[in-house]
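Listing S7. Sequence submitted for prediction.
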Amino acid sequence: MIGGATQLVAIVGSPISQVKSPENFNTWFARHELNLAMIAVDMREQALDAFLDSLRGWQNLRGCVVTVPYKQLLATRLDEVSERALALRSVNVIRREPDGRLIGDNVDGEGFLNAARQHQFQAEGKSALVVGSGGVGSAIAYSLCQAGVSQLTITDVSAERALALVDLLQTAFPSIAISCEFNSLESFELVVNASPVGMGGSGELPLSTDLLNSLKAGTLVADVVTSPEITPLLAFARDRQCPIQTGPEMAYAQLGNLGNFMGVTPLQI
């Protein structure tokens, strides 16, 4: 039960109905008998500046998780961001300091790797394909490079945006082979859909069926889409005997990263 003494965190985006964070956080808070709660905020873009102004003075709101489509937009409107968020120009979590200053970070990539490790995937020396170079795709690609992949390929419906991410990563990680070029999935040990394709039961696939038919059994196929849990991509991969990682798995795996940054959970939960 939320009362006057309850400390709050929020998640902001639009649409917001598909997100798993409120369920994950509130279950964890209740299990640990903490007077904390997460609320979901479906915010219009025109109201974001007013929301940030309110957040600065909202004394019982500790912080805010950021989801689509505002991760890159809000990164430019905070008082301070982490080195990682600065490089990615994207945030997925904001902490409100006692003086009202707003500090941002992006832990999407760390949450993704937490979930992947539970599938016995270790990034070091591996070859990976990331589909999508927006906020979450950029964060996953950055963390894969930090974790030591040997090869990374980026693809996006916007070739310009994919190339911009490749340039950013090549500058930060010059020893890793990073490109946009591929014509088969056979060489990849990890394939990640970090785009919205497949969300909401659309039935869409993020890659052509010709490419997907080149998937080899044993490749970990992951999707960041949380609803439906088994996206068309994951269903296709499962039929080809590939291990799969769902969006809700990633969402839960980064709960500690998000909560710790906002000061409401330990890093390891």
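Caption to Listing S7: primary sequence and predicted structure tokens for the chain studied. The chain has a mean pLDDT of 96. The longest strand covers residues 7-13.
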